[in-house]
Every structure is written in structure tokens, then in C-alpha cells.
């Protein structure tokens, strides 16, 4: 084979491989570990889970995420300026399951909760301000790599009508 043809063929092949490999789907945006409420952004640094286990045909996990480190010895956040608390119920009684959890008011007895991912209670609290209760929205939970490493996506409506949106991804301290 002619060396010039070989070099040209090799160059075209490499160019084709490079072009095909660089045309993959765009990687998803990385999780920023923050929430936004009324144009105010808060960093989410740490959190914990309380596993309450089986409850009325569901499995109950409570998620607490804050903007400061969690001190396991004190069993509390270290001087937080903001905390989000959500009590989630997954279908079944053997384990907590990932999924999209929809808000259902505890006073709404007409909604059948059987087999659903839902939450009835959530609070957004900031230092020096009144707690704001969640009155609508969803929380999407994805287990990422280990039993207590989660990705959490918040899309919530607070009692004052403001929207809380954001994400957290990380290992959470676990309590049973």
C-alpha cells in the first residue's frame, strides 16, 4: 500500500472515531447542593435521616438537610441558618424506596394513599424567621451509590405561596 494512501486512510479513520465519540448525549448538569426560595439561594451542606420503619402499609423516612455540618455527637446541625425537613412515606413495609413523592395534606382523607409515594408534612426553617410549612409540590428521591447516599430534588410550594426549588446529593447520617 502506498504510504501516502495509508496515512490518509489512518487520518480519516481517526477523525471519524473522534467525531463519533464526541457526539454523545450532553452530560446532565451536576447537582449544585442548593435551594432557592424567593430569589434567595441557600447552600445545602449536610443532613440526616431518621428511619421510623413500617407505618400503615408504608415505610417512613424523615429527611433533614441543612446549610451547616451535622454533628453526630450533639445529634444536631452546627449553627444552621436554614433547614428543610420532609417526612416521606414509600409504599410497602419492608424498606424505603426511591421515587417521586407528592404532597397530600394529612387532612385530605379522600385521597387513597395505598401504593403511593407521598408526604404529608414538610417545613422550611430559617434562623430568626418563622417556620414555613409545605403545602404542595414534590420531592424526588434517587438512591445513588450506597444505602444512605441520595440525590434529592425539591419542587415545593410553601404556605406563603413561595416556591422552594433545589437539589442535594450526598451521604446522609442514618438513625434508626
Could you please describe the fold and organization of this structure?
The protein is built from one helix and 13 strands, in the order H-E-E-E-E-E-E-E-E-E-E-E-E-E. With 176 residues, the chain is mainly beta. Strands 1, 2, 3, 4, 7, 8, 9, 10, 11, 12 and 13 form an eleven-stranded mixed beta sheet that branches. Strands 5-6 form a two-stranded antiparallel ribbon. The longest helix is centred in the first third of the chain and has 19 residues. The radius of gyration is 23 Å and the shape is globular. Keywords: Signal.
What does this entry show, briefly?
Helix content is 11%, strand content 51%.
SS content category: mainly beta
> How far is it from the N-terminal to the C-terminal residue, by CA?
71 Å
Integer-rounded radius of gyration: 23 Å
**Major β-sheet profile:** 11 strands, mixed
Approximately how much beta-strand content do the residues carry? Answer: over 45%
The average pLDDT value, as a whole number, equals 85
**Number of E-type strands:** 13
Question: Which descriptor suits the 3D outline?
Answer: globular
Helix content: 10-25%
Low-confidence segments, ≥5 residues, pLDDT <50? 10-27
In DSSP terms, counting alpha (H) and pi (I) runs of 4 or more, how many helices?
A: 1
Sequence of secondary-structure elements: HEEEEEEEEEEEEE
- Structural domain tally: 1
Keywords: Signal
Signal peptide: 1-24
Which characteristics define this entry?
single chain, 176 residues, mainly beta, eleven-stranded mixed beta sheet, two-stranded antiparallel sheet, 1 helix, 11% helix, signal
